[in-house]
Amino acid sequence: MIMRKSKFHDLNISNATLIFADLVVLSLVFYFINIHNTSSSPNNQDIVKYLVISTQFIFFTIPTQLTILAVGLYNEKIRESFNGIVVRLSVALFLAYFFSFSLSLISSSEYLFSQTRETLYIAALSALIVTRFIAISCKYEQMGKRRVLLLGHGNRAKLINSTMRRATDRVNFEIVGYIKFPGDEVVDEGNIKQIELSVPLEKYIIEQNIDEVVIALDERRNNLPSDSLFYCKLHDIQITDVIDFIERETGQIAVNHIYPSFILYNDKSSDNLITSFLNWLFNTIIGLLILSVTWPLIIITIICIKLEDGLTAPVFYTQKRVGLKGKIFSICKFRSMVIDAEKNGEQMSGKSDNRITRVGRIIRKYRIDELPQLFNVFSGNMCFVGPRPERPQFTKQFEDTIPYYSHRHNVKPGLTGWAQLKYPYGDGLNDAREKLKFDLYYIKHRSLMLDILILIRTSEIVIFGKGR
């Protein structure tokens, strides 16, 4: 039984099972810790006590699982050692504890288990570490792993190797082999074996327990085995085009292999006034919440920049960027480079750019330099989630070179986005092309749920200083 693509993006059998297992573990920890706390134990005749214990349970489990998601531990493709996972769990439980403690300052401590809080989170951390060890030992990430047959052995089939090189990229499926068809431009098959059929295609698929057939023929006319595929479809075997397969498994669009119809039929840019207002309201509320928490960090950053560059040195830096429908607007950031950084002309910034100041390297790593863009969100030029806005001169270069690059301008740019989660820092034409694949995926699937997911998972980038 195949788990079809989830609207919650990246959700599959393995991480759904892990989410459920964590909930069970947290529930057991909560029960055993609170059953010994007489002040929190409900009396059968006291409904208020039941409400108290239920509220405590919600304030414990939901924030904890959200922080686990935020540090990337519900991603079965994460490349991290067990020690690294323990560190991430510790960070997640600390954040959940901090959230609980903060709420207790503005709410009744009776509802937030202040007497057992420390014990509860320590016990939860210990139990979750054990759970993760068992899950990793049992190779939980391979739950629901599908057996995939590849029809075709040419340039389109090659996309799978080029987009999913690592073993962690293929934890959800196993390619049994490929079948070559006339018209395929043969490429190096790597470790994938060629299947020579001695029985009808549909019989081979049934006998080998194939879960999914991926269509990757370079030439489909007069080659596609329609009758066999229809038979397989009737037997609940998934038939998937290679472009859709890559989109599902990697969260990106193969830009060089899509047709113009993709843009025509998957355009979600026509928001009405009500939707636009609600979107602005959502972003403004999130912005105010973040500003209320980060204002001390903003003041510290201003002081540090002044101490490094002098009291008269500018703190903020504005740049022209391309926004919705190609409209030019000014973006505001903390200055992270030397004052005369572009005295020799405009150029893209790289990881090892020697124009970046000492303070600049720190605030860039943890994305603190982006905080002034909250005011771009308030003004309506940007959203929290969307493609990162590019400078006009580079946009023109990319539009002339990269197919469909201008399609990014059909949505508002964002402080963070799907590309920032999925692709490491990049500063050139090739990186712009790779990031566009993820931006197009976001534009196709954008929704409030996806925006919330991206916002939560952006915490991993900020906390661990990954990407930009």
From TrEMBL:
GO terms for molecular function: phosphotransferase activity, for other substituted phosphate groups. Residues 281-463 form the Bacterial sugar transferase domain. Signal peptide: none annotated. It comes from the Bacteria. GO terms for cellular component: membrane. The keyword Acetylation does not apply. The chain crosses the membrane at residues 12-33, 53-74, 86-107, 119-138, 277-298. It is a multi-pass membrane protein. Keywords: Membrane, Transferase, Transmembrane, Transmembrane helix. Pfam families: Bac_transf. It is found in: Membrane. Belongs to the bacterial sugar transferase family. PANTHER family: COLANIC BIOSYNTHESIS UDP-GLUCOSE LIPID CARRIER TRANSFERASE, UNDECAPRENYL-PHOSPHATE N-ACETYLGALACTOSAMINYL 1-PHOSPHATE TRANSFERASE-RELATED. This is Putative sugar transferase domain-containing protein.
